[in-house]
Amino acid sequence: MNSPRQRPLAVGPIRAFEAVARRLSFRAAAEELYLTQSAISRQIQALEEEMGAALFTRGTRHVSLTGAGAALLQAVAPALARLDGAVRQIRASRGRRIVTITTFASFASLWLLPRLETYQREQSDIDIRLDTSDRMVDLEEPEVELVLRYCEPHQAPEGSQRLFGETLTPVVSPWFAERAARGEIPALKVPSDLAHHTLLEEDDTRPSAVYLSWRHWLDLQGQGGLEPQRWVYLRYTYQQVQAAMSGQGVAMARLALVAEALARGELVEPFGVHARVRSPCAYWLAIAPGARPRTEVRALSDWVLAQAALTRAAIGENTA
Hints:
Arc Repressor Mutant, subunit A, D-Maltodextrin-Binding Protein, domain 2
């Protein structure tokens, strides 16, 4: 059961409606909102009378939304989510200092999280809330403070700062490359050799994904018609990297996200640095327009920019 501190902010019949619509149960909604089932029923009835339409079809053992109920839920659910987010932010600000960062999962896994440990040691009184999502988060959401995005320049949020650009490069594990060099598996010296290997491909349909694809890289190498021994399609970039590290094939890696792994020798570029290709996309940092001007938000923003400068140096990018 939720504690009083976690209890949702009551907004009467609308809150009751959303809970019943989400749980499809008057009893479960009553337990969630700390009300009796009869109180929930009265609130729903009052809302239906006010709207002049039935919101639920009530069966003996089940509840379902009517067309009017479904239409109302579509408007109510995101509004209540934003309201609850604002309440959590206000409550959090009265206790420990928390900064919320939103970004996509692979960037968090491969670039941000390995660095955050150092920041948290230095700033032990600041908590970090990391929200990872592949969708474009609405910058007006109340909990959003720092936004890390990957897109082309014209898609970057207003006022955002460029962290670093995108460079793609084939990578394999070092022992995979060693086995190829010893002749234990097919050679991997020139791009045409990929016809005898497994290619790890990012399974992404967004427009920017074309630059991350093997087909794009092969076209630039004059191997547009090449077909590998097999394809393995993976949803996330970090899964490609993990698969390459375990010797399952050749990945098309984002250089900025694997620079440290290359430096440590956990990955190698079988075709060398000359096989790297640039993408028009880049990584960006923005402070959400609705974020309160807090020193901890600015401090974390400055720290991210400093870390990005180190990455630019590691990948040989001189533009800021």
